[in-house]
Amino acid sequence: MNPPQSPWPARRPFILSLLLIATFAGCHRDDGEQIRYATAPKQQAPIPEAVPDLPAGHPEVDATSPLPGSAPAPDGFAYTMPAGWTLEGAKPMRLATFAAGTAEVVITRFPTGTGDWVSNVNRWRNQVSLPPVDSADPSTGTPVKVDSQPGHLYDFTGPDKKQLVVVVNKAGSDWFLKIIGPRAVVEAQKQPFMDFLGSARLGD
């Protein structure tokens, strides 16, 4: 005598159908809107800008790093930075600031006639621990040229510090280019500073 057969095989297709219907019904919101799933596209990494060819033996330069040599600055000021100098971050009232060893090179620009000359001279003298003066003649400086514009170089040498200030007027603006620091350092950096002045291009 054969054993009684289970009703499960006969009912299995019907039960599976019910499960499939329940599964698809669960993928719809109550308001009948179907829920959709999408895979967000992957973001591609930005392609770095090409770095110009460097001379043989030059260390690798990252694409995001500034290249050495000639460089522009605000207000159309351009220059070639001497070897060993480093460009510092932006500072108030300055177009550019450089570190030349332990000396500092500062570039500023103001409308012609900003401040009186004696006050400027006394400020520069005070920065190197020199006493103030009652009068000063701007024509007593050493004649120089920056960007083909005539100017004067003024030397302020204190007991420990030294400052060289070049003043040039161009297109209604007074440009002040100076280096200040320990006496020995500024004296050693004088020629690089003069080379820097020779490369400078002042904005209009």
* Number of DSSP-assigned strands: 9
Number of helices: 4
Element-level helix/strand string:
HEEEEEHEEEEHH
Provide the structure class: alpha+beta
Q: What characterizes the major β-sheet?
A: 7 strands, antiparallel
Estimated radius of gyration: 37 Å
| Strand order in the sheet with the most strands | 3-4-5-9-8-7-6
Q: Proportion of β residues?
A: 25-35%
Mean model confidence by pLDDT: 76
Low-confidence stretches: 20-70
Task: Write the SSE topology.
Elements (H helix, E strand, L loop, with lengths): L7 H19 L43 E3 L5 E3 L4 E3 L8 E5 L2 E9 L5 H11 L14 E5 L2 E9 L3 E10 L2 E10 H6 L1 H10 L5
Antiparallel strand pairs: 1-2, 3-4, 4-5, 5-9, 6-7, 7-8, 8-9
Provide structural commentary.
The protein is of the alpha+beta class. 23% of the residues lie in helices and 28% in strands. It is built from four helices and nine strands. The radius of gyration is 37 Å and the shape is globular.
Give a short overview.
The chain has helices spanning 8-26, 117-127, 183-188, 190-199; strands at residues 70-72, 78-80, 85-87, 96-100, 103-111, 142-146, 149-157, 161-170, 173-182. It is of the alpha+beta class.
